[in-house]
């Protein structure tokens, strides 16, 4: 059960993190519409390979940081400041996001597997995201940095990401309108999450 839980957690975290329309999702959907499902799945597979390495690197960073308590404390203090600034930005400064464009033009007919790897490599945000995600799960006692839990967590993240890509590939037209509500309210959603994280981190520092 301790090995199955990281798999489920990795899957759920990745699913939630990737479900919003983004460059890789929208590109996968567009390739599916223009070139067929097989090409889109090849693209998604390439992107997922890079997600595997990004998540693995992130967990290694998280393990190193967790073994150095002075770094953890410093990151928590920085995190309060960053989360507070993000909350202010998303609640009061950020403009209402525009509807993501679906008329994306994809040039060339190069191998879609490597194209997926390229776009996913250019997206470096998953690394810091999964660093903090794995550290948070470890602090809560739901995850450890042993080999098997790490492998399970990374596998779950890859599966969760690929499932989202697959949903966009096979059902983009059906979910397009449903994603509009999330996009229109994304600033409030993110602002609420960052505020929650700032409060939790502050309370944790005060009671340690």
Automatic annotation (TrEMBL):
One of the GO BP terms on file: amino acid transport
Keyword Cytoplasm assigned: no
Alphabetical keyword list: Cell membrane, Membrane, Transmembrane, Transmembrane helix
Protein name (record): Lysine transporter LysE
Membrane topology: Multi-pass membrane protein
Main location: membrane
Source taxonomy: Bacteria, Pseudomonadati, Bacteroidota, Flavobacteriia, Flavobacteriales
A cellular component term, taken from the record's GO annotations: plasma membrane
UniProt key word Signal: no
TM region positions: 6-28, 40-65, 71-92, 113-133, 153-172, 184-207
């Amino acid at each position: 059960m301790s090995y199955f839980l990281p798999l489920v957690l990795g899957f759920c975290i990745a699913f939630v993190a990737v479900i919003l329309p983004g460059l890789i999702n929208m590109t996968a959907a567009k390739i599916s519409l223009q070139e067929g499902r097989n090409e889109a799945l090849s693209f998604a597979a390439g992107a997922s390979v890079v997600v595997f390495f990004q998540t693995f690197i992130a967990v290694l960073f998280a393990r190193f940081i967790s073994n150095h308590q002075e770094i953890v404390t410093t990151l928590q203090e920085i995190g309060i400041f960053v989360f507070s600034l993000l909350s202010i930005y998303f609640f009061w400064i950020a403009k209402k996001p525009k509807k993501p464009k679906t008329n994306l033009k994809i040039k060339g007919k190069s191998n879609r597997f490597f194209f997926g790897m390229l776009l996913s490599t250019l997206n470096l945000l998953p690394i810091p995201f999964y660093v903090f995600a794995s550290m948070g799960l470890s602090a809560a006692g739901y995850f450890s940095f042993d080999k098997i839990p790490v492998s399970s967590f990374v596998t779950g993240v890859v599966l969760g990401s690929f499932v989202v890509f697959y949903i966009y590939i096979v059902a983009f037209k059906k979910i397009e309108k449903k994603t509009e509500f999330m996009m229109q309210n994304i600033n409030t959603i993110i602002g609420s999450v960052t505020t929650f994280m700032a409060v939790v981190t502050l309370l944790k520092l005060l009671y340690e």
